Amino acid sequence: MNDVRTYLEQKREEHLDELKQLLAIPSVSALSEHKEDVRKAAAWFVDTLQKAGLEHVEMIETKGHPLVYADWLHAKGKPTVLIYGHYDVQPVDPINLWETPPFEPSIREGKIFARGATDDKGQTFMHIKALEALLKTEGTLPVNVKLIIEGEEEIGSPNLDPFVEQEQNKLQADVLVISDTPMLGKGKPAICTGLRGLCSLQIDVKGTKGDLHSGLYGGAVQNSVHALVQLLDSMRNEKGQVMVEGFYDDVVDASPEERESFARLDHHDDEMKDELGVTELFGEEGFSTLERTWIRPTLEINGIYGGFQGEGVKTVIPSEAHAKITCRLVPDQDPHQIASLIEKHIEGHTPLGVKVTTTRFDTGRPFAASIDHPAIQAAARSYEAIYGEPAVFTRMGGSIPVVETFHRLMKLPIVLMGFGLPSENFHAPNEHFHLENFDKGLVTLCHYWHELANIEEN
Amino acid sequence: MNDVRTYLEQKREEHLDELKQLLAIPSVSALSEHKEDVRKAAAWFVDTLQKAGLEHVEMIETKGHPLVYADWLHAKGKPTVLIYGHYDVQPVDPINLWETPPFEPSIREGKIFARGATDDKGQTFMHIKALEALLKTEGTLPVNVKLIIEGEEEIGSPNLDPFVEQEQNKLQADVLVISDTPMLGKGKPAICTGLRGLCSLQIDVKGTKGDLHSGLYGGAVQNSVHALVQLLDSMRNEKGQVMVEGFYDDVVDASPEERESFARLDHHDDEMKDELGVTELFGEEGFSTLERTWIRPTLEINGIYGGFQGEGVKTVIPSEAHAKITCRLVPDQDPHQIASLIEKHIEGHTPLGVKVTTTRFDTGRPFAASIDHPAIQAAARSYEAIYGEPAVFTRMGGSIPVVETFHRLMKLPIVLMGFGLPSENFHAPNEHFHLENFDKGLVTLCHYWHELANIEEN
Predict the structure, then answer these.
(1) What residues have CB less than 8 Å from A274, skipping those under 6 apart?
(2) What's the pLDDT tens digit per position in A395-418?
(3) A203 to chain B, minimum CA–CA distance in Å?
(4) Torsions phi, psi for B360 (to 5 deg)
(5) Average pLDDT over residues B221-250
(6) Spatial separation of the C-alpha atoms in residues A176 and A413, rounded to whole Å
(7) What's the angle, vertex CA A212, arms to CA A207 and CA A213, rounded to 5?
(8) Residue numbers in B near A296 (CB within 8 A)
(9) Of A39, A220, A297, B344, which sits 20 to 30 A from A15 (CA to CA)?
(10) What pLDDT does B126 receive?
(11) What residue stretches are annotated with the Peptidase M20 dimerisation domain (chains A, B) (predicted)?
């Protein structure tokens, strides 16, 4: 391991330059105008995997953006690890809030700023560099590895499910490792044992066939924006509870033990308020902040638009109004069932004088893992060895649909060991990644492959 | 009058070409990028007034867009008419719904299509051409006239009030005539005896300092869009009633006679539904459609925006959300008082975890006139002489703040005789003006100046 550390230190600037190249590619999977950029990022990974010494590197076409696969399978008798990452990123708006442009990576105060720095280009890149470091210094890897890197994580991985279903042999492994979850805080490693699921919908309201003068027609017809507002407001009460009938029916209550363990974690609402710039937190009555984000489902409006958005006033009654909503789900809520309940709610609450249509977007099932699995315990030891701090077991409010896919289709144990920090502006302007965790994370991963090789021999 | 008719027939094509030039100028007063275009339209009017034979033509600077003034004062012993019009227009979005570009005037099926065709460039232009026709054929005018044409009507005439207050001598007249209100329908002239007032506000909601990942933070903090939705929904109930405390307190109920006269008008909800493309009309319980638009106040959301508006999904908790609202007011509601009541409502209903600020935009007081005034009766006779149909007395749901200004500051009787049709897409895509009313309206105006000269002599 000393050679590995030295190698990583010597190559650090070179690695950061490579990472900057990667982060400069605007691989926004949600926007069709970036289709070619997404492909460019896939090609960049193909090239980088080959140079790192991985084998069978290939770009795999799907109906959407391509997958990238690579492997190294010469550790006879040792376990096989499947590493998953994604090279696509979220859109960047509101662009005016970025201090430096999202696709012009910039290092300041020990952090690298760019869209994708932490989610998930930076962390996926680390996996390749950790393997490269082992191969270049030790000439071999302690375990067999397969990497699958996708370009559609941020749009719900629509083409990964069929691929995994069809290619179970190719992907067969003993454990799946993903670095796309945050640590608990600076210097506080965490292994995530639960993720929320996801279902998302667009709601489109159509009233009069065109916009109308609010003087001539105000009072005569339904206002589409007002109708949308009424409809959305009917979905949540003032206590933060979702009012869609049946929404909570399949929620499995967390055990008292689990809730107690969360209560012992180093979380402070006051710090969170400061960090987010609000005077109070808000959410479903009767649950702590960690509980509300980890073990309770939500219904959030991600965007709303209708009528005049320009400078000043325009006295119109808008003809159309639109909203995008996402629910975060917990075991055992089913995303399709929840989407159906919301659609039924909309049917039952559509205001007079408008038509409402819904479009379903991506879904992801919720996931929960056992903390007792040896691969998870080995990850905890690796973190402690490098960070000098025991890893805690957390859940995460986000969704990684692929986790549930692998869990369900391949029955794989899954280790979610990430190196990002919660404050690193995932999905928001000024996304960044702390280089401290870039450095320690690389060593932790190298350590982990050795740990895993030993464990599985026992 | 026969010479006038012949003159107008002979000059028709020339006049329409001139009108097209005027309509091609994108004088959108609300958008600062069109500042120079607004000025260009003012200059166009200065030029056209001079060529028409009006005198003392001048462009008058204000803090905003300029005013245009002209007069002709040689009808000794005859009354003086002040004619008001506006040369500014509404914004054009949604631009994609226009069949031909809003600033490329196009005549088809007897209508001229362009932003401003009916509101109010087209009708203001008619006034000049009617005066020109009288001057060129009769060598004189039956009455003295003053014209004041402004460039800020669509943004609430912020600079007209101080001007009128200061220049009462210059503007002194016996009657004010405005053509900016619609007829009741094709071939059905109407004189408007009441206008609603206006007050408008922008509501800005600010939550967390930046957008957040809806997975990591969903459940922990207030969602700005959801907070805005809750706030807006609290302002109106499902029966279309405004729930802002005190909102209806100063409303003067219309007399049973007036309500009965509205009920006798040729209005059919079914035709309106067809025209607007809706299956049902909607508004405050207990009032007919005409009553809801003429004698009842409203609170409308003109626009809403916050969070992600792009293609597909973006799983964010938006940091900001915005709405624009406009109230239409009836006698004796005071726009500033209503704005205060709304601000108080907002303070009392601000959801937890966000800050809400409001910005007041333009206001206009409601107005009601007496139908017995000789100048109004003369207008009715003029319509009947040309259209062969008696003019009915209506109210209008729209606001022309200047009407209330002149009424209040100069105690002028006001005649609202318009030539537009309600179906001509005021403030909406595909605004147009029927050339039938361009032709008949010109003759009606010439007739009216003669009627007015005779009346006042009795």
Answers:
(1) none
(2) 888 877 788 888 888 888 999 999
(3) 12
(4) -85, 135
(5) 97
(6) 6
(7) 150
(8) 219
(9) A39
(10) 98
(11) 193-351
Best mutation target, B278, B421, B425, to test chain A (most A CBs within 10 A)? B278
- Give the tokens for residue A361: 């977007």
| Dihedral angle sign, alpha carbons of residues B15, B16, B21, B25 | positive
Q: Which residue of chain A has the CA closest to B314?
A: A302
Chain B nearest CA to A84, separation (Å) = 19
Q: Do A278 and B208 touch (CB under 8 A)?
A: yes
Single-letter amino acid, residue A149: I
pLDDT in tens, B118-164: 999 999 999 999 999 999 999 999 999 999 999 999 998 899 989 99
- Homologous superfamily of A2-195+366-457 in CATH? Zn peptidases (3.40.630.10)
Name the phi and psi angles at A23, rounded to 5. Answer: -70, -15
Residue whose pair of structure tokens reads 């000439």 in the numeric block: A139
**Chain position carrying tokens 């290092």:** A107
A2-195+366-457 and A201-251+297-361 share one fold: no
Instruction: Please name the residue that has the structure tokens 């001057």.
Output: B135
Q: Hey, are the CB atoms on A215 and B397 less than 8 Å from each other?
A: yes
Q: What is Dmax (Cα atoms) for chain A?
A: 81
A303: nearest CB among B94, B207, B308: B308
Say if A440 is an interface residue toward chain B (CB within 8 Å).
no
**CATH number 3.30.70.360 given to B197-251+297-363:** yes
Chain B partners within 8 Å of A116 (Cβ): none
CA distance A55 to A78: 18
pLDDT the model gives residue A227: 98
Alpha helices in A277-422 (DSSP H): 289-294, 335-349, 374-387, 401-410
Q: List the structure tokens of B154.
A: 């669509």
Nearest by Cα to B278 from A231, A322, A222:
A222
Angle between helices B2-10 and B435-457 (to 10 degrees): 150
| Closest chain B C-alpha to A176 CA, distance in angstroms | 22
Q: In this complex, do B198 and A315 lie within 8 Å of one another by their Cβ atoms?
A: yes
Q: A360 forms bridges with which residues in the sheet? A: A201
Q: Return the residue in A316, A421, A431 with the most chain B beta carbons within 10 A, the one to mutate for interface testing.
A: A316
- pLDDT attached to residue B107: 97
C-alpha distances in Å from residue B384, one per residue of A251, A401, B120, B133, B192: 72, 72, 23, 21, 15
Kindly state the tokens that stand for B156. Answer: 């609430």
Domain extent listing, chain B: 2-195+366-457, 197-251+297-363
> Residues A350, A352, A357, A362: is their CA dihedral positive or negative?
negative
Dihedral of alpha carbons A455, A400, A20, A34, sign:
positive
Closest residue in A to B430 (Cα) is: A210
Give strand pairing partners of A82.
A146, A176
Amino acid at residue number B451:
E
State how far Cα B131 lies from the chain centre.
23
B212–A428 C-beta distance less than 8 A: yes
- Report the alpha-carbon distance of residue B130 to residue B319 in Å, rounded: 55
Fold of A201-251+297-361: Alpha-Beta Plaits (3.30.70)
How much is the average pLDDT of B268-273?
95
Which residues of chain B from 310 to 349 reach within 8 Å of chain A, CB to CB? 310-318, 321-324, 326, 328
| Dist. CA B379–CA B428, nearest whole Å | 29
The residues that bridge with B300 in the sheet, in sequence order, are B326
How many interchain CB pairs under 8 A, A with B? 347
Residue B414 phi, psi dihedral angles, 5° rounding = -125, 130
Q: How far is A48 from chain B (nearest CA, A)?
A: 29
Nearest to B360 by CA among A312, A315, A318: A312
Q: Are B287 and B176 in contact (CB under 8 A)?
A: no
Window 161-200 of A: residues touching B by CB (8 A cutoff) are 182, 196, 198, 200
